[in-house]
Design goal:
With 426 residues, the protein is α+β, with helices and mostly antiparallel strands. The protein contains 14 helices and six strands.
Amino acid sequence: MQGTAIVTDRVHIDAVDDPEITAQVEALLSRRTRDIRLVGRINTLFRERVWSQTAKTIRAWMIWVAFLDVLTLALYMLLLPRPVALSMLLPGAIIPPVVIAVVLIWRKPRAPWLQGATLIAGMFLILLSVALVGATAGGEFYERHLNIMLFVTITATIIFSIPLAWTVTISALALGLYLAFQLQNPELAIGSAVAATLFFASGVFATVAARRTMTILAQKTFLLELRDRHRVAELAAANDQLKLLARTDPLTGLANRRWMTETLDQLWSGRKKIRGGAAMLMCDIDEFKMLNDRLGHGEGDRCLVKVAGIIQANVRYDRDHVARYGGEEFLVLLPGVSEQEAVAAAERIRESVEAAALPNPASRVSPHVTMSIGVAVQSPAEVDASPEQLQRQADAALYLAKQAGRNRVLLHKLESSAGKNGRWAN
């Protein structure tokens, strides 16, 4: 049963994303409550939604009917004259095997036609058994058991959340049995039998009408649930989109400075602790202002997009982090790399940018776009170093690379004996 519930929930989740289902739900909810009719896939979804509870109710009701039948027959054997009690025993014995069959069929979902036919046939045999017990005993038991039969019908009608056609069929069979047995009642005239049947028919069909109203209200609740799930899903998707927009650079599609700052905080705070040290690359497009001034901002934007793609293509997709950190600056975080690996990655990026031959005719470095990169590496032993310190070191290395002529990679390296801030990597 738990597995069935999980599958049903998945189906409902899929239905939330189905535009056709969503449109049908809105159309149904726009009607008056009494005019709601579930058909097609929505009706199937509703039946799947209520099946488990309905099946439990039917099984429990059947078991109690069988228990009361056996208990009543036992009391009759003790309290009534033996011939009368024995006459009741055979028709009363119909109920337990019928109940067992219905319970077995309703233990797990099966074809609706099979479960419907089983339930209707089972109810008919149970009602017939109750009527036969009274008819074979005769006397006061005749009328009493026919009334009990109708009471059983009414309780089943109220309790069973089943399709209306099944409910009407069971009620019609009960009234048919009542009329047939009353017509055979030697103590009742035909007119009285018909009048009694019509009297009870009004009560039975009033119960059916109440059951129909309960079903429609349950269906409306289900439709409201589907609509609410759809709206919640839409809201969640909108929130996710807003979060993505808030953390994404709209031009390049890379992460923006805010996202990178949050990522660095998470990595260094221990929630996603990096192991084996990390390297930071501060990448800057050389003479980018001159490119904008000469070729225009549209060409500058195209350059930024292409450079962003080049950087992304030269890092590890599943481990490294790339962000547009400023106008023409990009920050790259490489977890778990050595100095040699970090420098090699930076050099790969620089060479790829240069090889792309993007035009920058006003540049004093090259007629094509070039890039300077500052590299800072935190070894596994440097546990106290913060991301801000690593970033300052990468910035310092980038500044020296710019001063030294641009289009190069510089590794930041503290040299206590020489008092220098860095050394060349190329």
